[in-house]
Amino acid sequence: MASVEYGDHWRKLRRISALEIFSPARLTSLFSIRREEVMVLLRRLHSVSKHGNYAKVLFLGGAETVATSMEWALANLLNHPDVLRKAKAELDAQVGDRLIEESDFAKLHYLQSIISENLRLCPVTPLIPPHMPSSDCTIGGYHVPAGTILFVNAWSLHRDPTLWDEPTSFKPERFESAGRVDACNFIPFGMGRRACPGDGLAKRAMILTLGSLIQCFEWERVGENKIDMAEKTAITMSKVEPLELMCRAPPILDMLLS
User: Fold this and answer.
1) E-assigned strands of 69-139?
2) Span 133-144, pLDDT tens digits
3) Quick one: which of 40, 2, 59, 66 has its CA closest to 200?
4) Record-annotated residues binding heme (predicted)?
5) For the chain: N or C, fewer Cβ within 10 A?
């Protein structure tokens, strides 16, 4: 759909995406599938860390955008242990001794802020898919002829010091208060008619996955040094060095995964 020229065919595809494929009702109906995928991940991690000791885990972010975003999120959290502790405290208070469900998401404001801040600082797609005006227009004072291919640099926009306070710092608190972030300054999924139709699915998957990983395991860096956040840019932006972490499963996880 991203490559289809704007017109009747594109509008039909967009309508199908919004009302059928990615509708809230459809996403809710498929929660059990997302839950089972996360459970597979939790069981694998549990199998290597269930003896009470920390086990070294290698995360490989690939072309799959949610997996890559989770790699960045864990790296950011381990470099900011105070944020990780606050997220864990929120999960303990709002969810308790059961696994996180999608019905809990509305109460997990800080976890949602972590997801947003991770997407701001480490957008998986640093360049928004190209746009092309159908007629001459003016953008930011520049004349743009019809047919010009335009790329929006989301990575640069998200780190613009004129738009963000301490733009290179990982500060989820900036998203906690409604109205503090201008939607035009935060575009990890694009914006307007060409915005990614799957943003709702991606956000649900990210919150469920990251929340489950924080809730179910204790995490530590492999060494004393901070995790290297060097970026490797292709179609998607991943880490230069694959993420290595130490995880330990608490005794209660046996009951949660049974």
Assistant:
1) 127-131, 137-139
2) 889 999 889 999
3) 66
4) 196
5) C
